[in-house]
Every structure is written in structure tokens, then in C-alpha cells.
Design goal:
Largest sheet: 5 strands, antiparallel
Distance between the termini: 106 Å
Number of strands: 7
Shape: elongated
Number of domains: 1
Oligomer: single chain
Order of helices and strands: HHEEEEEEE
Helix content: 40-55%
Number of helices: 2
Strand content: 15-25%
Strand order of the largest sheet: 3-2-1-6-7
Radius of gyration: 31 Å
Length: 194
């Protein structure tokens, strides 16, 4: 009889230990799930940001390719239409109103698209001149207008250019630890047409 009680007690103790392990697993799960969710959301935000940057790059490349294929239109007569066409290509590459962009045809005809609304500006006659373009993406310096292709101070010769700049406001889903924050992604390209 003593042995029977001892076995019964051992079984009860085993069941109790099993329940205790189940409780430990639940506590560990409750502690680790938020950490894994934060890592998952951070990875998702990073992926979405890189995808948006890729889409922006693709749209600017499409506009630059169009400018290269239509280099003969970099004139005072056709410059405004060329700028408008390039802006339409950049805007429609990923749906309307998804990014803001600025197209400048040889320091002359300019189209700026903000929240899907295009505004034209610039002096058409500037498109007939030649420039020594300097600077960096997004902040180009056109220099002095020349009637012919003269030598540039930094080397090379003056030419005709089309600049394509696009920006996209990215807002992450999870703003934690300033890993990925609200930011403006920007992509720019310059095409020498002559």
C-alpha cells in the first residue's frame, strides 16, 4: 500500500511539473513576441523604404531615357513640350500623385509637379544656349549661357542638358528607436543632349 501511494504521488508530482513547464513557456512566449514583432515591423519598414527608393529611381531613369531619345527637342520651340512630356512620364511611372518632380530643359522650360499638380515656368529662349553644368544631384548650377559650345573652366565643353529630379515622402509604419523615420527620398539625373 505504501508503494501504491508513492506511485500515485509521483504521478501527481509529474503532472504538476508538466503544468509548471507549460506556464514557463507561456511567460517566455509573452516576453519574446513583442521583440520579434518589433524586428519584423522594422524589417518590413526597411523593405518598403528600399522599394519606394527603387520606384523613384526607376521613374527618374524613364524620364532621363525619354530626354535622351528626344534630344533634338531641347530648343526654345520644343523645350516646354519636352519638359511636360518628361514630367508626365515620371509621374505616371508609379501612378499619379505618388511623387513630386522637377524637370528642367537646359536652364529654360521647367515643369514642377507637386501633389499631382504641374506648374510650368522658365524662359524658353534659354534652351537654345549652351551651359557648363556643375554641382551635384538636385542642386545643379548652370553657369553662364553661351551661344556656342565653348570650353568649360573645369574641363570639357559647354552643352545642352535636361535635369530630372524626383522626391517621395516616406512614412514608416513603426517609428521606434529612430531606426527608420519620416524622410524624403530623392533621386536625380542629368542628361547631356548635345
Amino acid at each position: 500500500m505504501l508503494m501504491s501511494r508513492s506511485r500515485s504521488f509521483s504521478r501527481s508530482l509529474g503532472k504538476l511539473a508538466g503544468r509548471a513547464n507549460d506556464g514557463i513557456a507561456a511567460v517566455e512566449f509573452a516576453i519574446l513576441v513583442p521583440v520579434f514583432l518589433i524586428l519584423l515591423m522594422g524589417t518590413t519598414d526597411l523593405g518598403q523604404m528600399l522599394y519606394a527608393y527603387y520606384k523613384l529611381d526607376q521613374a527618374v531613369a524613364a524620364g532621363a531615357e525619354y530626354a535622351a531619345l528626344n534630344a533634338a527637342n531641347v530648343t526654345s520651340t520644343n523645350g516646354a513640350a519636352l519638359a511636360s512630356s518628361i514630367a508626365t512620364i515620371v509621374e505616371s511611372a508609379n501612378g499619379s500623385s505618388w511623387a513630386n518632380d522637377t524637370i528642367v530643359v537646359n536652364n529654360g522650360p521647367t515643369v514642377t509637379v507637386t501633389s499631382g499638380t504641374a506648374v510650368s515656368s522658365g524662359t524658353a529662349s534659354s534652351a537654345d544656349s549652351y551651359y557648363c553644368l556643375t554641382g551635384s544631384p538636385g542642386s545643379w548650377s548652370w553657369g553662364t549661357a553661351n551661344a556656342t559650345q565653348v570650353a568649360c573652366a573645369g574641363g570639357g565643353s559647354a552643352g545642352k542638358f535636361v535635369t530630372v529630379t524626383a522626391t517621395y515622402s516616406y512614412h514608416p509604419v513603426l517609428k521606434i528607436y529612430n531606426f527608420i523615420t519620416d524622410s524624403t527620398l530623392s533621386q536625380s539625373s542629368v542628361v547631356e543632349t548635345q
